Amino acid sequence: MPHDTPLISTIVGGIVLAFIFGAFAHRLRMPPLVGYLIAGVLVGPHTPGYVADQSLAPELAEIGVILLMFGVGLHFSLKDLLSVRGIAVPGAIVQIAFATLLGWGLGAFMGWSTGGSLVFGLALSVASTVVLLKALQERRLVETERGRIAVGWLIVEDLAMVLALVLIPAAASIGGEGHAPVEPLSAALSSLFDLDLGIGGMIAMTLVKVALFVALMLVFGRKLIPWTMHRIAHTGSRELFRLGVLAIALGVAFGAAKLFGVSLALGAFFAGMVLAESELSHRAAQESLPLRDAFAVLFFVSVGMLFDPNVLIDKPLPILATIFIIVIGKSVAAFLIVLAFKKPLGTALTISASLGQIGEFSFILAALGVELGLLPEEGRDLILAGAIISIILNPLLFFLCDRMRPLLDGAKREDVVADPAPAADAIAAQEEMLPEDDEVHPTALSGHAILVGYGRVGSIVGQNLKSSATPFLVIEDSDKRIGELKAQGIETLSGNAVMRETLDLANLSGARSIAIAIPNAFEACRIAEQARSVNPSILIVARAHSDAEVDELKQYGADTVIMGEREIALGMVDRLAQVHHESVPYEDGHGPDTIMPTDDPPPGRE
């Protein structure tokens, strides 16, 4: 008996096609998300063949956004958020205003109403959560200063859009430009007390609700959520722990949206941020990772489903103008704003590239504008086309920024040399041109050891290399760890060892050994493969969490692979043998200089 299963068919169709085209895009050295978008276009209503459920796909994608923002919150403390408020808040506000002005100008030029033009401009001003975080994660920048500024900037944009979603219906109802519902709480208070709150009252109600949610999370959530996870962890059930992580992420996000009018993504972010203060945060991040990645893919598929390829033929010039605002206008504005705050050039380029796209909030604003009768359907089509194309172009924008940085650095230094300023001014200007803290330079070491990763395992290896006076350097991407290493006088390269350029800076060809201490087996295999191809005689030592990973790492060139579980088991067997077979008396060796082993984190996160 046949059954209609739109949910199953949507998930299966979206994930299977995303896998096929994502793998094909990766084969062509393109970002996999390009393949995900193409998969969405193929299962959308504008192409022949199977059509996925257009109402289910966006909701499934929203789960990915929730889990993704929850994961970011797990690695983003309140201290990090407050540390970038000085640039993220004014920077995001100015950038939103500038992009909205450009969008309003394009809408006015096309003959739209003032309200519709402003909605169009707002939709072009806000970057996509998923695209931004994917780009930062691929470059391992989330925990750097640049990453923190970008994420903080994103949070401010989300808060601004939450306010906009309340103001737009109110403005439409007052201005008479459309048919608008009124904000529920404001309507209830107005009818109860016979008061006309107006736009000012609605703004105040929105700010009060957001502030109330933040206060509850910071006062009660910081105690209740970690306490709950600790109680679940003490049960010893991994299944319950995983379910608890998902319940907190999804439950807080949904409750924040329904009770306080806060976006789902923002609610999930605060849930993750308060849980980050618990030592269980790493485990929570690992448990939510598989679902987070799977549903994030469905986000790109759902975006592709909305895209009608015919719009590229029907409206080429308006689409080009829209893309110019998103990719060029926003990026240039963000670049100049960051430089105005006297931040390094690399930070300005990263922020400008990160914001050169639009996504989920843009779709929500476009749908609201059309529903209220403010934005014509032509505007929604332009927003969707601009989103698709800007998402595809975003990796190219990052690539161009990476290539522009050395040229801009060189141009700045030439200007300093040519400037006949007084000596003191020249010295001050020259100091501004010095490489920023995260810029990397080739090492002068030779015959040395290379240590990839300085987490729980890498720190033990590094301290022993240092105590034995072995020349070595560390490749690390965490700003916090890099600062600690530099304070100890340990040479450090900031970057991802998977990138060939980073390994070249570490003088891989002149090194005697490389210890790959990161827990991610996929990246470790790639590093081992490149190390063996560059230096066939180098000693490669890696870590693994299973027999399959051991075999794979050896296949890619590793000489020695240490599996934590096996070494723990051997230590236990040795201790038991000392007791049961009257071996040499056991000594625990808890001396002042002894480094005790620690439990390894699960694969994917230290």
TrEMBL record:
Family to which this protein belongs: Belongs to the monovalent cation:proton antiporter 2 (CPA2) transporter (TC 2.A.37) family.
Domain of life: Bacteria
Species name: Rhizobium leguminosarum
Keywords: Membrane, Transmembrane, Transmembrane helix, Transport
GO MF term (any one): antiporter activity
Cell compartments where the protein resides: Membrane
Domain RCK N-terminal: start-end pairs: 446-563
InterPro entries: Cation/H_exchanger_TM, Na+/solute_symporter_sf, NAD(P)-bd_dom_sf, RCK_N
Statement: the UniProt record of this protein carries the keyword Glycosyltransferase: no
Membrane topology: Multi-pass membrane protein
Swiss-Prot/TrEMBL GO biological process terms: potassium ion transport; proton transmembrane transport
Transport found in the keyword field: yes
Ranges where the record places region Disordered: 583-606
PANTHER family: CATION_PROTON ANTIPORTER YBAL-RELATED, SODIUM/HYDROGEN EXCHANGER FAMILY/TRKA DOMAIN PROTEIN
Protein name, per record: Sodium:proton antiporter
Gene Ontology cellular-component annotations: membrane
Broad class of the protein's primary localization: membrane
Transmembrane segments: 6-26, 33-51, 57-76, 88-112, 118-137, 149-175, 195-220, 240-257, 319-341, 348-370, 382-401
Entry-linked Pfam families: Na_H_Exchanger, TrkA_N
